[in-house]
Amino acid sequence: MCTATGTLGEVSAYLDHAATGPMRPEAVEAMMPFLTDRFANPSGAHRWARDARRAIDEARDELAELLGADPGDVIYTSGGTEADNLAVFGATRAATREPGRGQPGIAVCSAFEHHAVLDPVEHLGGRLIGVDHLGRIDLDELADVLRAETERANASEGPGVRLVSVMTINNEIGTLQPIDRIAKLVRRHAPEALVHTDAVQAFCWTDIAPITRNADLLSISAHKFGGPKGVGALVARPTATVHAVQLGGGQERDRRSGTQNVAGIVAMTTAARLAAAEREANIERLGALRDRLLDGLLATVPDIFETAAVYVDGVSDRTQRAAGIAHVCIAGVESEALLFLLERAEVFASAASSCASGAMEPSHVLAAIGVEPELAKGSLRLSLGWSTTTAEIDHALAAIPGAVAQLRRFNV
What residues are paired with 328 via a beta bridge? Predict the structure, then answer.
C-alpha cells in the first residue's frame, strides 16, 4: 500500500478508503497492456482499434452483469461526479425535448447528497428533502413535495418533477437509504419522474443489482472499490431518457462523447468482479474491525460521540450503516488540528468528504442531521476498505486518544 511519500509501514494506518483506496494488484495488471501494446483508440476502424473496442465491449458485458443491468444501459464516464452530473442535467434537460414541455423538469434530492448531486440540483433550482438525525430521508416530506409538484403540473402551473436523486450510502456517515421504498413512493406520487441513486460508496457494502432494478439511473466510480481514479459509469435503464451534456464524437450511443478510457474501463471491471466476489466476507471482516475501532474510541476518548448512532438495549446498532465507515464527533477539538496530529502519528483519515480540493469546510451532512455546529468542528471519519488490517485498527486506537488529549491540553 503506497502513499505520496512511500510505502505504509507496520506503524501506519490508512483509514480514508471512502475518499479513495489502493488499486487492487489484479486491476493494475489488467490495465497495463492497454497503456503499452494495446493502446489504440476504440473509435478507429483498423484492427488495433477493433481490439480496443472489443475489450470495452467485453468489460461492458461483465460490468453490466455485476450491476444487474443490460450492457446497453452502461454509460462510461470519467468518474462518479460526471455520472451524477449526467444523471441530473441529462434527465432534466431531456424533459424539454418531450412533446408539450418547454422547460426542464424539477430535480429533487436529499439535503445530504454528495455535492456532485447537490450542486447540480441547486443550480437547477430544485428541491431539497430533509433527513432525520440518523441520516434517513424524510419519506413524508418527499411524498408531500411530489404530490404538490404533480398537482401543479397537472394544472399546467409547473413542469413537474423529472428526477429524484437519493444516494444509496452516504459518503460521510455511511447511512443506507431504502431505495426500494423511495422508488415505490416516486412511482406512486410522480409517475413521470426518474429515480437516480449515487451508488459511488455502495459497491463494496451492498448488492447493487436489487438497487439497479429499483432505480432508473445509478452512478458508480472505480476508485472506491479497488479500481483506478478517473473512470466510472452511469447505468441508464430503458426507462430513462438522458440528454447528452458532453458533445463531440458520439461515443456511448451519443449519450457521452469522448474517447473511452480503455485501460481504466478494463481495470474497473476487474476490480468490480473481485469486490463483488469478496463482498460478503469483507462486510463481515471489516464490519467487525469497524466495531472494534468505534467501541475502542468510545471507551478511551472522553466526550466522543458516534454519529448517527441508534441504540438497542444499550448497544449501538450499526446494521443500517456501511460496514466500512466509522464517523465520530469529538467535543473540544477541531478536525484540522486533529488530522495534523494524526498524520504525524501515521494515521491518515479525514473530517468529511474529500472532494473540495482539500478545503476544510463545514459539513452539510452533519448540519442536515442536526449535529450542533460546535460539535461538528470535531468530526472525524475513519473509513476502511479491502486492504485494511487489524494492525491498522490497533495503531489508530493507540494514536487517536493521545492526539485528542494533547489538543485538549493545548485548548485549556
Answer: 306, 380
- Say which amino acid occupies 103: Q
Ranges of each domain in the chain: 2-23+279-411, 25-273
- 2-23+279-411 and 25-273, same CATH topology: no
3-state SS assignment for residue 75: strand
Residue 292: enclosing H or E segment and its boundaries? helix 262-300
What does the pLDDT look like over 121-178, one tens digit per residue? 999 999 999 999 999 999 999 999 999 999 999 998 888 999 999 999 999 999 999 9
- What digits encode the pLDDT tens for the residues 173-197? 999 999 999 999 999 999 999 999 9
- The secondary structure of the chain in percent helix, strand, coil, rounded to multiples of 5, reads 45, 15, 40
pTM equals 0.93
Superfamily of domain 2-23+279-411: Aspartate Aminotransferase, domain 1 (3.90.1150.10)
- Tell me the CATH class for 25-273: alpha beta
Backbone angles phi, psi at 381, to 5 degrees: -105, 125
Query: What does R_g of the chain's alpha carbons equal in angstroms?
Result: 22
Catalytic residue among 2, 109, 329, 355: 355
- Residue 355 falls in the annotated catalytic set: yes
Cα–Cα–Cα angle for 314, 318, 322, nearest 5°? 170
